[in-house]
Amino acid sequence: MLLPPIILNSGYELDQKRFFKNIGVIFTFAFAGTFVSAVVIGLLTYLWALTGLEQVKMSWVDAFSFGATLSATDPVTVLAVFHTYGVDPALYTIIFGESLLNDSVSIVMFGTLQRFYHKEMHLVDIFMGIFKFFISFVISLMIGVIISIFVALMLKHSHLRRFPHIESCIIILMAYASYLFSNGCHMSGIVSLLFCAITMKHYAFHNMSIQTQISTKFLFRTLSQLSENFIFIYLGLSLFTQANLDYKPLFILVTIFSICIARYTAIFPISKLINMASRSNYIFSNELPKSYQIMLFWSGLRGAVGVALTEGFKGEATEVLKTTVLIVVVLTVIIFGGTTPQMLEIVGIHMGIFQYEEDYSIEYFYDKHINLEENVQDEFQYIKKSSFLPNEQEENQYHHELHLGSGQLDSPGSIDHSYYSSKSFDQTKNENNDQTLVDPDIFFSSGSLKSTHLNEEIYSTLPQPKTKNEETPFTQKPQTSSSDHMKWFRDFDSKILKPLVLEKNIFAKENNKKQSF
């Protein structure tokens, strides 16, 4: 009940361009990493149960279901710190994308394992379980994508834009229809909902009225936040008020140790394979430096998904496993989440890369009564280009040229004077004041963009960027391959799918700006 809003919002807010740029790395960690993590946790806890200490009785299904539950990461605390400090967007996207798919994989894996409860296990059953897992995942994915494309076509060929309240209801109901329909087919509703949200944001979102675009984004975000808050409140209260909790201190310590070993095994060896494949221009376009690998390890917090999955436990050890999951979630959030700023400083992650959020730019132009359906994309690009991070090339260079902490920025860009030519001084001044609400670190003056003193509290904690001579294995730039492994999909998307599902004027703008993921 509480998971769907979280998954829906995560898919809807995904940075699709960077997600698909790093899709090889994300899918590798989401599938191979989650599988390795579940096996390691399940195996170590099962071996501990066999010792007979603390009388924890678990079957192999209990153990590996427990492993699947604790393989679902929820780095919400880490990502909040990343957002505050302006951590490199590529690292942010990899961690967020890995967590997003990792949750879906863990849920499908947990459901697959539960089918073998109270059944004899043979070697053939293991392969059948893996086969069922992939079939369930692929079919669920297709259900979500098909429903979202249907929604995009429905919005394109109807006049629902004239009725934003009805349009918003249809978007929400169709998203949840993918979840319910997939569950009704005995597939994974969570996977369907996730990919329905991702595809809906990429296609249907552009066919919506501007009121629906804003309302759905904030409604999904609000429902997700409420669900997460409720889960963590329940988590905190349960530790002190639930009467049937069964604490096993040694088993809890073994579980925490198993999680650390599993996360290490799921990150560093796989990262080494990714880097080897990247050097060979095979599948992966970017290498992962040590700093990225360490932060991937450090972001392995457990959270809402793991707590929700505990309701599916069966058998004699159910209360022990539930109690252990609750404590592990609390400890990982406190330990790993609380020490994230210090770890960023230790490994030398590049910070200070702040970006505008599309929703706030939309609201700014909406308040000024501009025809958003015609101009919002152009105006948003205008603001984005005028910011102190003009283009993606500077992000890839990790902004060594920016003097973080000095409060000054090097030639951030200039503003098109024609934008103000037809406006009075008072109108321009009022709009400039409104723009400072979008980002208080910049202001407009005499047609040029200048910087005020940046937030000293944030920048005082950021490590200074190292020069080339000072680069270490932790702070080196990831090596980028010249091959483009997603070009075939971008061509298919821009030449076939977008002309099919987007309105002509919207597709023309997308094509002119060459915006595709």
UniProtKB/TrEMBL annotation:
InterPro entries from the UniProt entry: Cation/H_exchanger_CPA1, Cation/H_exchanger_TM, NaH_exchanger
Report residue spans for region: Disordered. 461-485
Q: How does it sit in the membrane?
A: Multi-pass membrane protein
Does Membrane count among this protein's keywords? Answer: yes
Could you list this entry's UniProt keywords, alphabetically sorted.
Answer: Antiport, Ion transport, Membrane, Sodium, Sodium transport, Transmembrane, Transmembrane helix, Transport
Biased composition (Polar residues) is annotated at 461-483
Q: Does the keyword 4Fe-4S apply?
A: no
The domain of life for this entry's organism is Eukaryota
Among Pfam families, the record links this protein to:
Na_H_Exchanger
Query: Example GO biological process term?
Result: vacuolar acidification
Instruction: Give the transmembrane ranges.
Output: 23-49, 126-151, 226-245, 251-271, 325-344
Q: Tell me where in or outside the cell this protein is found.
A: Membrane
Recorded GO CC terms: early endosome; fungal-type vacuole membrane; late endosome; trans-Golgi network
The GO terms describing molecular function are: potassium:proton antiporter activity; sodium:proton antiporter activity
- All copies of the Cation/H+ exchanger transmembrane domain together span 2-345
Give the family from UniProt: Belongs to the monovalent cation:proton antiporter 1 (CPA1) transporter (TC 2.A.36) family.
What is the recorded name of this protein? Answer: Sodium/hydrogen exchanger
| Taxonomic classification | Eukaryota, Fungi, Dikarya, Ascomycota, Taphrinomycotina
